[in-house]
Automatic annotation (TrEMBL):
Residues spanning the membrane: 7-27, 33-51, 63-86, 98-116, 136-155, 167-189, 214-233, 245-262, 282-305, 311-332, 339-359
Function: Ca(+)/H(+) antiporter that extrudes calcium in exchange for external protons.
Keyword Protein biosynthesis among UniProt keywords: no
Highest taxon above the source species: Bacteria
UniProt key word Secreted: no
Protein name per the record: Ca(2+)/H(+) antiporter
GO MF annotations, alphabetized: calcium:proton antiporter activity
Family annotation (NCBIfam families): caca2, cax
Gene3D superfamilies: NCX, central ion-binding region
Amino acid sequence: MRSLLGFFKGLNTLLLFIPVSIVLHFTPGMNPLWVFAAAALAIVPLAGMMGEATEELAKRLGSAMGGLLNATFGNATELIIGLFAIHEGLIDLVKASIVGSIIGNILLVLGASILAGGIKHKTQSFNQDQAESHAINLLLATLSLAVPAMIASHYHQLNTTQNNDIVNLSIGVAGVMLITYLASLFFSLKTHEKIFRSNDAEENEEPHWSKAKAFLVLGISTVLVALESEFLVKSVEGAAKSMGVNEVFIGIIIVAIIGNAAEHSTAVMMALKNKMDITINIAIGSSIQIAMFVAPVLVFAGLLMGHPMTFIFNMAELAVIGLSAIIVAFIATDGKCHWLEGAQLLAAYVVIALAFYFLP
């Protein structure tokens, strides 16, 4: 009994919303907002459990395989939500959640971490080579996401679901991004691993779970995330109407925060411990993974599902990604940070959230 009570503490308390969401989903006439809220709250601890299981497996498999495992499952929650949204034909929601995850990690997560860590430690330092590599990849991802929209806008081919050229262009760009992402992994985990090696002791921790337990937790949490993602996606339209907001705001702000909540807390905790290499890797690395791995996979998945998703983001979405990437590049590439930079990143995020909240 004591161990059970010990398990249901912190974020794990929200696991109680799993049965609640199931009951609400299957209750006739239920307000979609309640289903959406229950599913969203249930996903938060499940995403944390997936992340913890992945980390435990990474510790047992070595740096190269562990890095690859983290790269594959690091943003599995966003990928699963995106797959269900594509299946329902909610392409705009998928694109908005991609944008939200990118800016959420580099502005909200990194900003909160730098602010918290800077208040406690005044000035903090991190691996400059790693940060520069992340910044370049982030800018490359921004360029890759922007090019199809620029081409479509120039040639007035904005009816992208019917235009085979734009679909094929998006597939080509997705392929290039995936290859580049894999190359960057090989660079940081194999050929230049010493350059990217962190001095943070946290990375050399011994595993606390057995391999069997880690696989079991990863499997169960993945299945439950898939279930809750289905509830979330099917209730999102009704929830948007009930809240009086647009679906773009839900995708960019709410869904993105849900998928990254566990990472948010981990990044801030590492910054408070003055382990900024881990914080940078969580925040900027996750944004890169969303842009260069998750987004391309969703493009190919949409093609297989009969709901083609292109890289045609609207100008507002591209602007916030591009400007956010530039701000982070300036902050990340000098190898040190202080609390004011964190406050500036958070200010940028609040401005963007307000803009999309008041979007018609």
